What we know:
The structure holds 3 protein chains of 3 kinds.
Chain A: E1 5-14, E2 17-27, E3 32-36, H1 43-51, E4 58-65, E5 69-72, H2 78-85, E6 89-92, H3 96-99, H4 106-116, H5 122-135, H6 152-164, E7 170-174, H7 182-199, E8 202-206, H8 210-216, E9 219-224, E10 227-233, H9 234-239, H10 244-251
Parallel strand pairs in A: 3-8, 3-9, 6-7, 7-8
Antiparallel strand pairs in A: 1-2, 1-4, 4-5, 9-10
Helix pairs in contact in A: 4-5, 4-6, 5-6
Chain B: H1 13-28, E1 34-35, H2 49-58, E2 64-69, H3 76-88, E3 92-93, E4 102-106, E5 119-123, H4 137-145, H5 150-163, E6 174-176, E7 180-182, H6 192-195, E8 201-206, E9 211-215, E10 221-223, E11 250-254, E12 261-265, H7 268-276
Parallel strand pairs in B: 2-3, 2-4, 4-5, 5-8
Antiparallel strand pairs in B: 1-9, 6-7, 6-10, 8-9, 11-12
Chain C: E1 2-13, E2 19-31, E3 36-40, H1 47-55, E4 62-67, E5 70-71, H2 77-86, E6 88-91, H3 103-113, H4 118-131, H5 148-161, E7 166-170, H6 178-193, E8 197-201, H7 205-211, E9 214-217, H8 225-228
Parallel strand pairs in C: 3-8, 3-9, 6-7, 7-8
Antiparallel strand pairs in C: 1-2, 1-4, 4-5
Helix pairs in contact in C: 3-4, 3-5, 4-5
Amino acid sequence: MTPLLSVQGVTKRYGAQIGCADVSFDLYPGEVMGIVGESGSGKSTLLNCMAGHLAPDAGQVVFDTRADGPKDTVTMSEPERRMLGRTDWAFVHQHARDGLRMGVSAGGNVGERLMAVGARHYGDIRGKATDWLERVEIDAARVDDRPTTFSGGMQQRLQIARNLVTGPRRVFMDEPTGGLDVSVQARLLDLLRGLVRDMGLSAIIVTHDLAVVRLLADRLMVMKSGHVVEAGLTDQVLDDPQHAYSQLLVSSVLQV
Amino acid sequence: MTDHAYNFAYLDEQTKRMIRRAILKALAIPGYQVPFASREMPMPYGWGTGGVQVSAAVLTPDDTFKVIDQGADDTTNAVSIRSFFERTAGVATTTATIEASVIQTRHRIPEAPLTEDQILVYQVPIPEPLRFLEPRESETRKMHSLEEYGLMHVKLYEDISRHGHIATSYAYPVKVEGRYVMDPSPIPKFDNPKLGDMAAIQLFGAGREQRIYALPPYTEVVSLDFEDHPFEAPKADQLCGLCGAEDSYLDEVITDDTGGRLFCCSDTDYCEGRRKAGHRGPAFPGNEAAA
Amino acid sequence: MIELKDVSKTFTLHNQGSAVIDVVSGVSFHVAAGECVALTGASGAGKSTLMRMIYGNYLTQAGAICIGDVDIVQAEPREVIALRRAVLGYVSQFLRVVPRVATLDVVADPLRALGVPAEVAAAKAQDLLARLNIPQRLWPLSPTTFSGGEQQRVNIARGFAHAYPALLLDEPTASLDATNREVVLSLIEEAKTRGAAIIGIFHDDAARARVCDREIDVSVFAPGPSINGEAVGHQRGTAA
């Protein structure tokens, strides 16, 4: 089987500072991988390098494109990368306002990607938007409301709908449940799990919440100071961590 | 009376040459916004500094110049610019559309069809049609270069979702030759169909934003729309009170403080021409009784 | 079906003076299809640890653990996940679920993961929940608020929803009343009949005697005190 995403030796420096160093892994279709580590461990830098938001100093990020098979998205032409960015790729930001157009209605937010790939029938676009609002458990009657009138959890679900409407194959999520209260988190996690399964998504979730990765991720990568210190099955890394830092991380979680 | 303290048409020759280069480039890439080094003009931004610079660059001593502001030849703005070029270029001026070789306009296209011998210069406040939803210039430039125009339809989508129809009534975005999405300046969308396939050269100047763009003669210009909400070019459902025209764009003029109003052609030259030819509208003096 | 070859396991506690704890070493045994084997030994002998190693939950330092033709020690995470989805089931002592997911969906989940249609999976889940005497009014509720015994039964229903060819049971009858204990034992017997290879930990002697074909005393695999005496002082090696 061809990996959907193959990351090889990705390195990013900020001057003398290391963002992330020599990160390599393969992500297969349908797999969900978590990246955990403390603030500043390089997980967001790595995510942004893989998403094409940052240019890595070294390494390859090979994506299995529908049209031409595996291609390095770092050296790929910008139009091609941006096209992937609004079709096959999705990026869920920690802060919904980074991923939504706050001045545009919920329907317009969901419809944007459809219009970006050529949808020109208002009724169809609106129908799909409404359908997606329902899939993420937002009342279809809110389709013309702006996200500014939505709660934090709703905004996050709207962001997910906006990202998934084009049926992407690769989803990156940066702290998708950060800043949400616990009951809202649970609902979002359940929703994400269902979507990942139903759509066969491959996803990478960056978070510092170990409970989130245990519920969502098949695999886990632990980062510290820009380096991957441990990687493996999520439950194995959490229940039997091998590296000193992973052990510290796991043992630092407050029990409820 | 030409004021000889100034170079012909106010701007120095180097500046005019620079602007002409920008115009030629703009004509070569219809709809593309060409940056140019906009000069300080002896009038405030918003008064047509972009249009004035373009006019200055294209005027020759043999030209006949006309200026309209929302269709009218007799508003302050139109009169000022007309007298500015009378003074600095000594060109002949006119209010008759068919007699003019260069027409500078703010917010209208004349009703009378233009010819291949004419140049229409638009004053443009905000040249970037994507600005409404994407404030970053770096990003909108990239979107133009990569033809990423989905966002333009988001704006129209929002219109329909809020008003039930596309409510954008002026500065209605168009696609030029199937490539660049362009802001036609704040002309009413009633005028949009005239943009395409026009015999005259159309030049657009944005002074504050330092951009020039153009439509060469007979360019394909399509107003953006949805399959199930096609573009429409509506006007007030009235006829001109003065000349009785049914096909021209109308202004609504409040005539007193008791609610009296008058619809009349926004194109004063067109209206006058029709009245000279004997046409009369219901509100024409001496004709009210008939109305 | 399940084969362990010379398996050993140590824990290194980096943050506690890098203490090294040897748990088991030299474990070798084989469980055939249709066979149920009990792991026995005193508390702390490593029964649960061994079980978790077989499930891939704990990392194995040496040896091979083959489930069918997959060696879990060497396998890639995605291979382990595929194995757990289709081949290797595990009923732990603790229910771990996404909050607010309905009990019925929790039980149907393993089947849905295999691509079984929603109605078929739901029917199977209903059947198991009914057998395990979970009142129907609880099915649409999340099991997180259930009593210990109810959670344990939901966990068992979930573990038996799919007919795994290999099954690991960690105290499946603990905290169950006689009726439900009986249901669980018959579920195990049915699994054996259809050819599942089962490894279990049973503190309930009668239950063990009834369903298990063999017993393996894990204490024999405990490393001798001479290997790392001070760290494993509580373990008494009985290996020959």
